[in-house]
Amino acid sequence: MEGIVNRLMELHGGQLLTPLAMCAVLVLIFKALSGLHQTRGSARREFLELFQDVDKKDDLWLSVAVRHHFGVYLPVSIIRRLCKLDQPARAILEVADAWSLVDLDDVTGEIRWRSKRHASPASRRRLAFAFLAGYFASALCATLLAYILVVGQMSARTSFVYWIWVVLGGVAALYCVHRSDLLRTGGPSLERWLGVK
Predict the structure, then answer these.
(1) What is the dihedral of CA 124, 196, 72, 85, to 10 degrees?
(2) Cα torsion for 117, 123, 125, 131, to the nearest 10°?
(3) With contact defined as beta carbons under 8 Å apart, do 91 and 85 qualify?
(4) What are the DSSP E strand ranges found in the chain?
(5) pLDDT at 144 > cutoff 60
(6) Which of 188, 180, 97 is nearest to 137 (CA)?
(7) How far apart are CA 171 and CA 142, in angstroms?
(8) Could you tell me the pLDDT band of residue 90, with boundaries at 50, 70 and 90?
(9) Whole-angstrom Cα distance, residue 132 to residue 128?
(10) Under the phi-then-psi rule, with left for phi > 0, alpha for psi from -120 to 50, and beta for the rest, what region is 186?
(11) How far apart, in Å, do the first and last CA atoms of the chain sit?
């Protein structure tokens, strides 16, 4: 192992050591995400066990059971409304994914957009496009900076700070693509299943 590290230090003056260390960290992150995916499979089984005899349970149980499977606390009135549709599981899944865009007024029972700029479909499309453009810009900048750091002649100690910028650019790109997808698919889902205008 020590020989491998020494050999990596010799290649490009140690320039490849930082990206390889980051790749190792990414592998660990992907393994953790894979473990979460397996945990979600067992959560689905537990959810199905909990959901037997649904009529005998109270509102708190229903809210927690849906949170256990779909990951969001939805109001019980919304859950019951979605359960009456022809595709209740799909409706609850899509509404749960987009719930961060809306909120339920406790007094009137009306579902409102959390941000006024999300109320217009045209505005949501523009924001989704802007986030998608932000994704491409962040990913391109991070990729170009990583390429320059790998082929450049900068010392490993100095380049470490720039590698942090590469990671931040990658995180920003992931955030932008997530928000773009949420706005692109979430609005139509809320309009379809809940009639949010």
Answers:
(1) -130
(2) -50
(3) yes
(4) 102-104, 111-113
(5) yes
(6) 180
(7) 10
(8) very high
(9) 6
(10) alpha
(11) 61
